[in-house]
Description:
Number of helices: 22
Shape: elongated
Order of helices and strands: HHHHHHHHHHHHHHHHHHHHEHEEEEHE
Distance between the termini: 104 Å
Helix content: 55-70%
Amino acid sequence: MSATVSSPARDASASASRVLPGWWPLAALMVLAALLRFATLDLQSFWYDEAFTPVHVLHPSLWATLRAVVHSENSPPLWYLLAWADSRLLGTGEIALRLPSALAGLATVPVAWAIGRELAGRRTALACAALVAVNPLLVWYSQEARVYALFVLTVSLAMLCFLRALHEPTRRRMALFALSGALALLTHYFSVFLLVPMVLWLAFAPGPQRAATRRAALPAIGALAIVGVALLPLISAQGGHGTQWIGEWALSARLQAIPQYYLTGYSGAPLGRGIELLIALPILLGVGLGLWCMTGAPAQPARAEQHGLDAPARAADAEDDRDELARGPRGALIAVSIAAVGVLTPIVLIAFGADYLAPRNLVAAMIPVTALIAVMLAAPRSRERSASAVGVLLSSCLVLTFLAFLAISLDVDRSPRLQRGNWRGVAAALRSGSRARAITSVELGSAPLEYYMPHLHNLHPGSSVLVSEIDETGYSPLRRSAGEPPAPGFHLRARLNIDGLIVYRFVSARPLAVSEAALRRHVITLAHPEVLVPGGAALAP
């Protein structure tokens, strides 16, 4: 008979576990995730894609909105339906339009917790939810009035329902997988790349229940196929609107951006490769150690009587340990298969002429990536191994990754260089100008300026306008001609730098006729130009 080992630290830990409910870590992570997403929801101004929605897509009529989705967007309609309803209730302000994304981002945290628990147990659940709560890429899209946060949430729900259906293939669980998968397909077309490996697992999963799982999954697979086929006419009608920029972005740069987005966020490039490597190191080390733990000799759960627990608690703890040790390798295999197919398939399709590989279209694939990291860092070890040097090192890797993600998410809130272009500030500077003026901008600035200055509209090609002021806006790198008068009779009055966005203001003593072509040629940056004028601007004969 072995003696019970006790200590004040163990007694305090056991006491705390009896006082605090088991869900308190998730609740704490939810509070942190909410603070990161809601506290600064309107800190940054809208950028082009966000402003394009209220300016060109959302209309009082739902039918007009859906028609705009067909003719000016390249995503399925679900998010736009939610945005339209949101705008009817709350308006088209920054907080109102970003609120659905923030709510979706927050809801993804408990779904990530449940995914981790299904894959490998409670430690993986905590690790997965913690990383999702603070990951800078996921926080970024939780504060963007576009489809991506809903894309992440619907794919996460589909993955959770898939895991539960794989574990217990009941009719209800398969129906929930079909429903969540359909919502994902109706949110973003890239959902299909993540749903395909889930379907393959249900159809061909090894084990004694393989035939029963396949029979139960067939109706769900058929329902998803029907939804996918129903979307084909919409895909054809949209024709890849607004995706030309993808092919103009070098493939090598896009491939490098995929890990950079995950490690340092959408706007993390200014931080440099050194910071990216520092964040990657604990992840790579932890994944390597986790793989070693999985492939090495299996460790047995420690005797629970050494933890000062009563008999039922000892039995439950030992059972949890055995369960986590058994599920870790399979959970890692499931996560890596979903992540690999979701990321690699769009890359392979480039060879067949279908190049839609924008790194942001892979944002939902970061959920199985995070789940894989969580399994490797948290699940594959017993209590004895947890107390060993390897266990301590794995836990340290997880904590360092969490803190690094959190630090970058907080840094975005305080560093304009990591934020969206401050077109709100540019619009505020331009409001003091003359009504008889023209504004030239890059394409990415046109929709934000129209949003923040609603009286503006595009000057018709081939026309001329009478103006006494010309404001040229853009960002670095500037053309060599920047600062030179855009037309005879104008001189430079001011040059402004608004968090990296540049404004040149030219004025003349009296209104002069300037053609749209001349204004377009003189945009200050090397990008597609736009010419905006106030409503009621005097056109030259």
